[in-house]
Amino acid sequence: MVFQRSIVDQVSGWLAVYNDGFVDRTWTGPPQFKFMSDPVPPHHNFINGVATHDLFTHPDSDLRVRVYLPEIPDSGKLPIILHFHGGGFCISQADWFMYYNTYTRLAREAGAIVVSTYLRLAPEHRLPAAIDDAYSTLLWLQDLADGKVHQPWLSSHGDFNRVFLIGDSSGGNIVHQVAKRAAGENLYPLRLAGAIPIHPGFLRSVKSKSELEKPESPFLTLDMLYKFLKLGLPMGSTRDHPITCPMGEVLQGVDLPPYLLCVAEEDLVIDTEMEFYEEMKKAGKKVELFVSNGIGHSFYLNKIAIDLDPKTSEETRKLIQGISHFIGNH
């Protein structure tokens, strides 16, 4: 009897899961968008004011990071931005062009070193695997701050008293989970100075008004959202799991850093993001809100729209500027 491989689940354009456990992440959507998911090789020389380097955090570790170093002469120590990529916990890598294009720009404009973690992906590695990788990267930064390990760019140029978490979409969920886990730990001499969830995938099992009424976009459709979460959350979980639905959690007594919650007015999940914002305020947490008007989920990662649409370009400029101001003020 010959075994016949067949697809048991898929997210159109992005991912197919087969009955033997194999996951195919070959891009099958419109070819003009493929370049945004192409890997960008690291370059130690400065290109447009930023150099990049990929490395393993420890000799015996499989955990990798990409480091972005801006070319800012005589500026003293630079804040460190720890980045967690999006992709519904199931797709994307830290070296994808869409992240390279965004985070080289942020490193340059914010005058900060960016460290982006290569997160393990579901369904092969369901949550909390990606959260564990993210937190392990924070502990590696603590080891660097303490001099237990050495990485030339970070050890020489990084200000470990000003470490910020940032994440796109599902990476925004990871930001909150890492901030909560860090709240109960002594990270000295590292200080977590802020957390920046950008368009986090906060939602409930019951669809919100915005999920029902807001337009879908190339970066987020309801089918994509629900299927990724089905594949990514711990087995048997619903969308009411705390990773995706932190709105009902008790946050009193949890020592969270200041937050900058970035939302987009036309995002499918803006209603539940705003619910999270209100719960943070009720709990007395320091949380600022940055709203991108008239635009949808993760718009700033879409290089084609940035180049062709003045609205997307302007809202991207404002978002980068808002994040840079938050970092500069903390």
Automatic annotation (TrEMBL):
Origin species: Lactuca sativa
Any one Gene Ontology molecular-function term assigned to this protein's record: hydrolase activity
Highest taxon of source: Eukaryota
Pfam families per UniProt: Abhydrolase_3 (PF07859)
InterPro entries membership: AB_hydrolase_3, AB_hydrolase_fold, Carboxylest/Gibb_receptor
Sequence similarity: Belongs to the 'GDXG' lipolytic enzyme family.
Signal peptide: none
Protein name listed in UniProt: Alpha/beta hydrolase fold-3 domain-containing protein
Domain named Alpha/beta hydrolase fold-3: residues: 81-300
